[in-house]
TrEMBL record:
<keyword id="KW-0732">Signal</keyword>
<comment type="similarity">
    <text>Belongs to the peptidase S33 family.</text>
</comment>
<dbReference type="InterPro" id="IPR051601">
    <property type="entry name" value="Serine_prot/Carboxylest_S33"/>
</dbReference>
<dbReference type="InterPro" id="IPR013595">
    <property type="entry name" value="Pept_S33_TAP-like_C"/>
</dbReference>
<protein>
    <submittedName>
        <fullName>Alpha/Beta hydrolase protein</fullName>
    </submittedName>
</protein>
<dbReference type="InterPro" id="IPR029058">
    <property type="entry name" value="AB_hydrolase_fold"/>
</dbReference>
<dbReference type="GO" id="GO:0016787">
    <property type="term" value="F:hydrolase activity"/>
</dbReference>
<keyword id="KW-0378">Hydrolase</keyword>
<feature type="signal peptide">
    <location>
        <begin position="1"/>
        <end position="17"/>
    </location>
</feature>
<dbReference type="Pfam" id="PF08386">
    <property type="entry name" value="Abhydrolase_4"/>
</dbReference>
<feature type="domain" description="Peptidase S33 tripeptidyl aminopeptidase-like C-terminal">
    <location>
        <begin position="447"/>
        <end position="524"/>
    </location>
</feature>
Amino acid sequence: MRSLTIIIGCLATVVFAHNVTSGEHTEGQQYEGESLVWTPCPVSPTLDSDHQLECSHLLVPMDQFNRSNNGFNNEKHFNISLIRLRGKNATANGNINILLNPGGPGGSGMGFVYSHGERLNAIVGENFNLLSFDPRGVNSSTPYVKCYPTPGNQTLASQNSFRGTDPYNLTESSGNYWASSLIYTQACKQTMGEHGEYINTPQTAADMNSILDAVGQDALYYWGFSYGTILGQTYATMYPDKAKRVIIDGVANEFDWYTSFIDPEASDDTDKVFYGFVEECIKAGNESCPLAQLAETKEELTEKLLTTIWALRSEPAPVYVDNTVSGLVGFPDVWYKAVFKALYGPSGWPALAAALAPLVQGNATAFFLQYMLPSAAKAYNDYNEPDANTFVRYNDGVSGPARSPSTREELIPVILNGTNNTMFGSQEWADYFNKRSWAIPQTFSFVPERGVRTAHPLLILSTTYDPVCPLISARSANDAFVGSRLVEVQGYGHCSLAVPSDCINDIVSRYFSEGVLPDSNVVCAPNLPLPYFPAPESSSSGASSPVNTTGQGY
Ligand SMILES: *[C@@H]1O[C@H](CO)[C@@H](O)[C@H](O)[C@H]1NC(C)=O
Ligand SMILES: *[C@@H]1O[C@H](CO)[C@@H](O)[C@H](O)[C@H]1NC(C)=O
Ligand SMILES: *[C@@H]1O[C@H](CO)[C@@H](O)[C@H](O)[C@H]1NC(C)=O
Ligand SMILES: *[C@@H]1O[C@H](CO)[C@@H](O)[C@H](O)[C@H]1NC(C)=O
Ligand SMILES: *[C@@H]1O[C@H](CO)[C@@H](O)[C@H](O)[C@H]1NC(C)=O
Ligand SMILES: *[C@@H]1O[C@H](CO)[C@@H](O)[C@H](O)[C@H]1NC(C)=O
Ligand SMILES: *[C@@H]1O[C@H](CO)[C@@H](O)[C@H](O)[C@H]1NC(C)=O
Ligand SMILES: *[C@@H]1O[C@H](CO)[C@@H](O)[C@H](O)[C@H]1NC(C)=O
Ligand SMILES: *[C@@H]1O[C@H](CO)[C@@H](O)[C@H](O)[C@H]1NC(C)=O
Ligand SMILES: *[C@@H]1O[C@H](CO)[C@@H](O)[C@H](O)[C@H]1NC(C)=O
Ligand SMILES: *[C@@H]1O[C@H](CO)[C@@H](O)[C@H](O)[C@H]1NC(C)=O
Ligand SMILES: *[C@@H]1O[C@H](CO)[C@@H](O)[C@H](O)[C@H]1NC(C)=O
C-alpha cells in the first residue's frame, strides 16, 4: 500500500519519509533536494492569494528521542500536515523556507498561513518560502488531540461536571474544581493512550528538524508567535548550531513554562492593556469610541465598566429579541469572552466599545448579537483546540499530583496568590486544578538554559503592553540568548502584528535576508494613524495594512 523509507537524519533522529517515487500522490509536485510531494491546498475562502499554496504531509516518529519506541506496524508515529506559501523569487535564492508557528499551543499552522500568509509574505518578501505545519496532536495532523472520543461524550461529561454555586469564590467552589479535574484528566489520558505522552514541545522542536531534513535545509529560519516563542526558545536551546534565523514574537517566559507550577508573570501587563483600552477610548472621543460619551475621564469610565460587568456575576442581563433569539449575558461572556479576547488586538476595540456602551446603559442586546450568536462559519471538526492546549502545556510543565501542591487545601492559597495580580485571574482557576491532577507522566528531559550561544543571535519582538506575553518575559529571553536583540513596538496587543509598524517590518526583513540585527535593543514607533479607535472616515481608507492578531490563546 504505502512504501516508507527510514532515513537517519543528520542529528541522529529517525525520519520517516514517504518514498515519493511510488504509490500515492504521483500527480503532486516535487522539488530538487526534497523528499516530499506537494499538492495544491484546498482553497480557503480567507485567502486572497496571488501566491501558490501547496500542502504536504510528513510522518515523524512518535518518540523522537528513543529510536526503539517507534515504528509503523504499531502505529507509533505522527502524521504532520505541512503547508507552504512559495515566494516568487525563492528559487533564485536557494529555496529557503521560514518555518512558522502561530501559537496556542494548539494553534493550526495550516489555518495561520491561510489567514496571515499574504501579510507575512509582504514583510519577508519574495525571496523566502513560508512553511508551516499543524504540530503533532494539532488539527489536521494525526492522531490529533481530544480528551473524549466524541463530542457527545464530552457533553455528557461536562453537563454532569461542575456544580459549584459561586465560581468566583475559589474557597466555595474548590471542591467542584477539584472533582471535575479528576475526571477530565483521566479522560485525556485514556483517549490519547501512548501517543499522549509524546505531545510536547521538545518533540515538536525535533519534528522541525524532520521537516528541515525533508525539505533539504540545514539551518532553521523561523518566526514563532506567542507559544511559538516557547517552541523557538526550546529549539534554539536544543539545537543551537542549527538556529540561524530565529524570531520570537510575543514572548512567553520559558523558565516559568517548564519549571514553575504557577505562572503569574504571564499576566503582568494584562490589566494595563484593559486600562489602555479605556484610555485610548477617552482620547479618541465619542465619534470613534461610543463608550467615551459615558464618562469624562478614564477613571470614571473604568469605574462604570467594572460596576456594570461585576454586577452580572449575581444578575446576568436578559436579552429577548424574539422567540428565536434570546439568552442571558453573564459575567464570563462579557469579561472573558469579549473583553479579555479583545485585549489581544486593537483591531477588535471599536466593536467591543460599540457593544459595551449600550450594555452600560442597560441594554445588552447589541452585545448579545455581536458576541453570543453561534458562529455559523465554524466548521465541524472534533479536534479540540483547548484540549490540545492543555496537553502541551501540562506535558511540558510542572504538573501532576507528585509535583504540585498535594491537597485541595494546599492548592487554594497557591492559586489565589498566583492569579490575583490581574482582574482576569479567576478564569485560570479551573486550569490550575487540571494541571495539578494531570495523569500523564513527563517523558522528556529538556530544561531551559541561560547563556545559550546560537548559530546566529535571536531577534526578539514584543509590544509594550501584551496581555498574555509581557515585555518582561521578552527581556528574560534577551538575557538567556547570547547576542540576541529585543525590539519593542510601542503599543497594546499580543505579538508585534497587533500594532503595524514599518520600523519592525524593516528589521524583520533585514534579519532574514542579511542576518542584520540592530546594534542594541530598540523601540519602534507604530504606524500612524494608531490602530485603536480609528476616526470614522479613516477606518475604511486607511486599511492598507490589516491588523488581525494571531488569534491564539497564549
Ligand atoms: C522507492 O520505491 C521504488 C519503487 O517501489 C524503489 O525502486 C526505490 O528503491 C524506493 N526508494 C527508496 C529510497 O526506498
Ligand atoms: C525506548 O523505548 C523502548 C520501547 O518502548 C523501551 O523499552 C525503552 O525502555 C526506551 N528507552 C528509554 C531510554 O526510555
Ligand atoms: C498522512 O496524512 C495525509 C493527509 O494529510 C494522508 O493523505 C496520508 O495518507 C497519511 N499517511 C499516513 C501514513 O497515515
Ligand atoms: C531575485 O533574487 C535574485 C538573487 O538574490 C536577485 O538578484 C533579484 O533581484 C531578485 N528579483 C526580484 C524581483 O526580487
Ligand atoms: C485545520 O486543517 C484544515 C486542513 O485540513 C484547514 O482547512 C483548517 O483551516 C485547519 N483549522 C484551523 C482552525 O486552522
Ligand atoms: C460516546 O462515544 C461512543 C463512541 O465512542 C458512542 O457509542 C456513545 O454513544 C457516546 N455517548 C454519548 C453520550 O454520546
Ligand atoms: C467564599 O465562600 C466561603 C465559604 O462558603 C465564605 O466563607 C466566604 O465568605 C466567601 N467569600 C466571599 C468573598 O464571598
Ligand atoms: C460627543 O462629543 C462632542 C464633542 O466632543 C459633543 O459635542 C457631543 O455632545 C458628544 N455626544 C454625546 C452623545 O455625548
Ligand atoms: C436595545 O438595543 C436594541 C439594538 O441593539 C434595540 O433594538 C432595542 O430597541 C433596545 N431596547 C431598548 C429597551 O431600548
Ligand atoms: C495576592 O494574595 C496574597 C495572599 O494570598 C497577598 O499577600 C497579596 O497581597 C495579593 N496580591 C494582590 C495584588 O492582591
Ligand atoms: C505569591 O506570588 C508572588 C509572585 O506573584 C511570589 O513572589 C510569592 O512567593 C507568592 N507567595 C506565596 C505565599 O505563594
Ligand atoms: C480579520 O478578521 C476578521 C474577523 O475575524 C475577518 O473578517 C477578516 O477577513 C480578517 N482579515 C484578515 C486580513 O485576515
